[in-house]
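Fold it.
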Amino acid sequence: MPLRLPDKLPAIDLLKQENIFVMDDSRAHAQDIRPLRIVILNLMPLKVTTETDLIRLLSNTPLQLEITFMKLKSHTPKNTPIEHMMMFYKDFEALEKEKFDGMIITGAPVEMLDFEKVEYWDEITKIFQWARSHVMSTLYICWAAQAGLYYHYGIPKYSLPKKMFGIFPQYPLDQSLPIFRGFDDVFFMPHSRHSEIHGDDVLSNPELRLICESDESGVSIVMARNGREFFVTGHLEYAPDTLDKEYKRDRGQRDDVELPRNYYRNDDPSQGPLVTWRAHANLLFSNWINYYVYQETPYDINEIR
């Protein structure tokens, strides 16, 4: 079944062009099925791009999902029209009395700052805490994964000598977990970050479970609270051309920009990217929705605790 999305959301037309089935509110009202309620806190600067990336993956499930976009009151995005934000996004204050089956919190371009120096740290940590009692399962991505691990479990982040930039092989550590159902022994994940968390810190905390890592990019997925929280340090949601756009944007403007590793065919930008992560990206999001959201959430959403 398709996703249930707000009428006129730009991602609808973009994804229809990719032959992905989506549904707007008007059509969804005709179906008498309780959709799973998914809230997305989108912290990325290019809102429409990130919306499209996530919806592309969420659409690959047989369940009907109702998507709500959340924004921060303490931060005004500079790269998205205010009209778009007003039409499709709601402040946390407008949603904090509601409950959701699942939540996604994206990365943000603030990882060079100490957590407490991020302008919206107070508001986002309030959301982190709220999610524990109002959401069945929360998926933290990239900077949000580092921030969530720091806030909830005291796991520090460490600056890297150079940017972790490219596509890196990942190894699931326990393939019996439902999140890895159907996975191969190795899969690939895009990374684009200037900091990392250390496996030893994760392993020393009995509340955390390191479930996937890479010899090259380090810790990639941490699970907590039996799957009510997942922390993913990379960007499986990235479109094929995302790293290409980032590389071309920063080349010549910064002195730390290197060719993204394991990304271009024959390491030649003129030959374009070789996509190696899309199948497992769809599988991970589908497994999360099915086994940690749909299979666990109560039919009466107000029973979530």
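The mean pLDDT is 91.
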